[in-house]
């Protein structure tokens, strides 16, 4: 499926491009700095202007992801890996093959290996368009996967497709509450501007923030303070 169709299916593209990315598109060809900026903004909150730029420069973006993902933070790379098959399907195999060789962060390696294993059979199938209904079904199925990283993938997909928090928030909170989950910080960070906080989420994050032995206590505290609660 063309990248534009995938992003439309996920409901994350707003084609009224903001001034920065409109200027980038009209006045210069793509470069690494622009691509890094667009990817960063897209990964933070599925920014529409950034997503549109990534679509319009898809070939360059694919080459960038193969060669330059170490310019992203480890947290950003994890978020990219978990949404790579859905949002950047055209470049998925090239990027995964390259990152399996180049990735040095242990947590990123674990998530990447899990993603590669999960999609191994699907990658071998002919590339064909999928419907919104099919994408949503796959995402919803992932919400109950035994692996926390795939539950995070499911939550990202359901949120991007529906913007409906009732199915997403409980899954994210279950990931966040279990210290054994390697992607709990990434799940928590989705409450920092992407998925809205509700009372239950604030309560869970406050408990984590007050437990200074928790590895993500500082992250939880930052999210709670940023929400004004």
Low-confidence stretches: 1-27
> What's the story with the biggest beta sheet?
none
Strand content: under 5%
How many separate domains make up the residues? 2
Q: What's the helix count?
A: 15
Instruction: Please count the beta strands (DSSP E, at least 2 residues each).
Output: 0
**Classification by helices and strands:** mainly alpha
Helix content: over 70%
Oligomeric nature of the chains: single chain
The mean pLDDT is: 81
What is the terminal separation in angstroms? 42 Å
- SSE pattern, N- to C-terminal: HHHHHHHHHHHHHHH
Shape category: globular
Radius of gyration: 17 Å
List its salient traits.
2 domains, 15 helices, disordered N terminus
Mind explaining what this structure looks like?
The protein is mainly α and 229 residues long. It has two domains: 3-124; 132-227. The protein has helices spanning 3-9, 19-27, 32-45, 48-56, 58-68, 74-87, 92-102, 106-118, 120-124, 132-142, 148-162, 165-177, 184-189, 199-210, 217-227. α6 (74-87) runs parallel beside α8 (106-118), α10 (132-142) runs antiparallel to α11 (148-162) and α12 (165-177) runs parallel beside α14 (199-210).
Helix/strand layout:
Layout: H1 3-9, H2 19-27, H3 32-45, H4 48-56, H5 58-68, H6 74-87, H7 92-102, H8 106-118, H9 120-124, H10 132-142, H11 148-162, H12 165-177, H13 184-189, H14 199-210, H15 217-227
Helix pairs in contact: 2-4, 3-4, 5-7, 6-8, 10-11, 11-12, 12-14, 14-15
């Amino acid at each position: 499926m063309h990248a534009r169709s995938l992003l439309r299916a996920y409901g994350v593209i707003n084609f009224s491009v903001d001034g920065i990315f409109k200027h980038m598109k009209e006045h210069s060809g793509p470069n690494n700095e622009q691509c890094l900026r667009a990817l960063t903004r897209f990964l933070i909150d599925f920014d529409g202007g950034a997503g549109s730029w990534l679509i319009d420069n898809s070939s360059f973006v694919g080459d960038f992801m193969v060669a330059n993902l170490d310019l992203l933070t480890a947290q950003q790379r994890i978020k990219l890996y978990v949404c790579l098959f859905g949002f950047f399907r055209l470049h998925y195999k090239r990027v995964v093959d390259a990152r399996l060789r180049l990735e040095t962060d242990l947590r990123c390696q674990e998530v990447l290996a899990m993603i590669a294993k999960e999609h191994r059979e699907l990658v071998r199938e002919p590339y064909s368009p999928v419907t919104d209904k099919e994408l949503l079904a796959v995402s919803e199925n992932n919400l109950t996967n035994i692996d926390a990283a795939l539950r995070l993938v499911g939550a990202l997909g359901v949120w991007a497709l529906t913007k409906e928090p009732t199915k997403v928030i409980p899954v994210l909170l279950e990931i966040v509450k279990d210290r054994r989950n390697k992607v709990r910080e990434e799940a928590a960070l989705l409450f920092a501007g992407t998925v809205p906080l509700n009372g239950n989420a604030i309560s869970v994050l406050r408990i984590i923030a007050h437990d200074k032995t928790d590895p993500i206590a500082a992250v939880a505290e930052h999210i709670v303070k940023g929400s004004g609660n």
